[in-house]
Amino acid sequence: MRATVMHAAGDVRVETVPDPSLAESHDALVRVTRAAICGSDLWPYKSMEPTDGGRRMGHEFIGIVEEIGSDVRTLKPGDLVIAPFVWSDGTCVFCREGLQTSCLHGGRYGFDGVDGGQGEAVRVPQADGTLVVLPVEPDDELMPSLLTLSDVMATGHHAALSAKVGPGKSVAVVGDGAVGLCGVIAAKRLGAEQVILLGSHADRTELGKDFGATDIVSERGDEAIERVRELSDGLGVDCSLECVGLEQSTLTALKVVHPGGTVGRVGVPQDDAVPDALEVFMDNVTIAGGPAPARAYIEELLPDVLDGTIEPGRVFDRTTSLHGVPDGYRAMNEREALKVMIEL
Fold it and tell me: Residues 134, 168: one domain?
């Protein structure tokens, strides 16, 4: 089959790789119909050292079950399914707590002999605990929004929950990428009264307004922090969502909340230390978040996608074939595209 392989920074290829086959009794084989390029895929695209065999890419996909292992009970061939961005058994102590990203028997796509999502097919381990059957047809117009539930919409939701967003709260969303924009949707959905989106790309912040942002802050650094405070009675917001992962975005998210505020951190950290740690400590600012347990959120968010209450699929502004994936990486890296969907 054909699949996406990254060999080094900036070197993404679509290559012929071995067809997947069932390896364990809890596996399912899924023929991919939709996939996506994630903002987190750009980190290795910028920095990956050359490797001999390359790295299989992709962790967001929808597809059709073609074959199941002997111990799979909740799926059958022909089911249209969505895969959260990590696989998990659904039964371990952490899965039962809704933290499938820490599953004792789980893992990540593209590692340890498991296929990446940006290819024609994927062997999905622990299929019963991972895959969710979708009640639509593969060509349904809701496919873009459904695909976001595999990662970016679930991650925006996780940021909002981690930051304790709720009715009447004021929220600052740091980052106007796909996760940040989904964070705006999530904050509005949870009842936030004020949602301030920090971003400098006009097309993205306009979409943020459509999603429910009440204010836009295009400044950066200290100017952005001051502007958010001006918009929140001079004290700072109740909650902030850090959706980038860089030192400056993290510092901004920490400093726009008032003392006692909460930061939901979902941008993959690119630095080991928390900036201004002592000041944050003295202000009793809570820092929460991490990789989103998307599997825990899909069934909660799915009805709102199916009835059109939320439309996170609007973050996809480019669609390509598998052949066009390398250019999709380039376009996202150069900010020509917000998020790329792959149709197979």
Answer: no
Q: Is the domain of 111 the same as that of 22? A: yes
> Range of 53's domain?
2-151+293-343
Q: In the chain, what are the helix, strand and coil shares in percent, each to the nearest 5? A: 35, 25, 40
Per-residue tokens: 52:
């001999």
Q: What is the DSSP string of 294-317?
A: HHHHHHHHHHHHHTTS--GGGG--
Helix (H, G, I), strand (E, B) or coil at 340: strand
Q: How many domains does the chain have?
A: 2
Residue 275, pLDDT > 90, answer: no
For the chain, count helices (H), then strands (E).
Answer: 12, 18
* Same domain flag for 122 and 161: no
- CA of residue 193 relative to chain centroid, distance: 24
- The residue whose two tokens read 């959905």 is 189
Residue 47 CA to residue 17 CA, distance in Å, equals: 24
Rounded to whole angstroms, the Cα distance separating 305 from 33 reads 19
What is the torsion angle, in degrees rounded to the nearest 10, for the CA atoms of residue 295, residue 138, residue 111 and residue 66? 110
Mean of the per-residue pLDDT values of the chain: 97
Is residue 82 within 8 A of residue 55, CB to CB? The reply is: no
| 305-326 confidence digits (pLDDT tens) | 999 999 999 999 999 999 999 9
Same domain assignment for residues 285 and 320: no
- The DSSP result for 243-284, as a single string, is -S-SHHHHHHHHHSEEEEEEEEE-SPPSSSSPTTHHHHHHTT
0.85 surpassed by pTM: yes
| CATH at 141 | 3.90.180.10
